[in-house]
Amino acid sequence: MEEIKNVTILPEYYEEQLQHIIDAGFKPIGVSQMAGEDTFIFRHKDEAHKAYEEMEQKYMFKPWSPDNDSDGCVQGWWYGFGDFIKAAEEYEDEFVNGVAREIVVYWFNETFIRNGYKT
């Protein structure tokens, strides 16, 4: 992957999910989509794992009932920055019907620089 495409306007689609994540005390640095799954990116994989446990996993094991409050459940893939870069490179190396995949990443912190990527 030569470069991750940076886009500055976040689609409204992500706003509610990101608000739940931020309200829970987590600070994602970016969001994307891979294979149709929302993908949340954090500085470190330990924060990504904690966010996954808090925002998704705890809801997975509750039996459904009308009284269960699943408001706040956010589903997707949760990555630390380094793991995301690796997964994104592998994903973009795959071809679908002879066409390479391209990932659009919405970065939130314009000063975050690592591994040659400036966001």
In short:
The protein has 3 helices and 9 strands. The strands form 3 sheets. The chain has a 5-stranded mixed β-sheet with strand order 1-7-2-3-4. Strands 5-6 form a two-stranded antiparallel ribbon. It has a two-stranded antiparallel ribbon with strand order 8-9. It is 32% helix and 24% strand.
Describe, in plain words, how this protein is organized in 3D.
It is a single chain. This protein has 119 residues and is an alpha/beta fold. The protein has one domain (5-112). 32% of the residues lie in helices and 24% in strands. It has three helices and nine strands. The chain has helices at residues 15-23, 45-60, 81-93; strands spanning 5-6, 30-34, 37-42, 77-80, 95-96, 99-100, 104-107, 113-114, 117-118. The protein has a five-stranded mixed beta sheet. Strands 5-6 form a two-stranded antiparallel sheet. Strand 5 and strand 6 (99-100) form a beta hairpin. The chain is globular and about 40 Å long. It starts with a strand and ends with a strand. The relative contact order is 0.23.
What is the topological layout?
Layout: E1 5-6, H1 15-23, E2 30-34, E3 37-42, H2 45-60, E4 77-80, H3 81-93, E5 95-96, E6 99-100, E7 104-107, E8 113-114, E9 117-118
Parallel strand pairs: 1-7, 3-4
Antiparallel strand pairs: 2-3, 2-7, 5-6, 8-9
